[in-house]
Amino acid sequence: MKEIFPTNPIQEVIVEIKFPLNLRITKDICEFQDIIKLEYPSLTLEELILSEMPTDIRYIFQNDQQTHSIFVEREKFFFISSDRYNFDSFSSQFLPIFEHFIVIFHIKQITSVRLNFINTIDGDNDNYSTLSKYVIPPLGIDLMNLPNDTKQFAVQAVKQKGECVIITSGALIPGDSPELKYSYILDIDSIMESETNCESLYENLNILNKYIYNEFLLNITEDFRRLMRKNDD
Question: What does pTM read for this prediction?
């Protein structure tokens, strides 16, 4: 965590927190809405059909710009940001909201914490091999020597780091415009599945973020680091 990059490829950051089944969610969700509705005025409901329990409702709150979303279920809380955040700025958005959440719904214990950074790295031209200047896919996939008829691929590596599991997924996908032929999605999940109290959340998120940062550096080249050191301004 020695270097902060002014420009980064982060497209989405997700934190998922699991807690014991809480029936207050349905009963008191209006109180939570009252607190966040100025910043998150949009509310939609989704019906979840789960095999292991009765039908559940997911409450989805969004800000006007649709850059931040909050998903609430009876056992889960998600905060999703599509801003290009570093961890500190993301935490400053997420933690105050979750502090309200645990007070309203009397959350005492957390059973699992997941932090997920999704990065999109674009190639220079219509040849996907140019991405080899920027990325080092898991398991040593050689982008330079992929068969010419390869249009996309996905690969995943799972690592155990202490009490955390790190899941790194790399995928080559077609671009969405004539100018951009190929992109590389680097999706890094860091998961801590152990029961903790709510007071330990920020510390645990820092641990998960450290593993993501280190894994990210293992999957990019020095050329891409130089690009990230450039300030868009």
Answer: 0.89
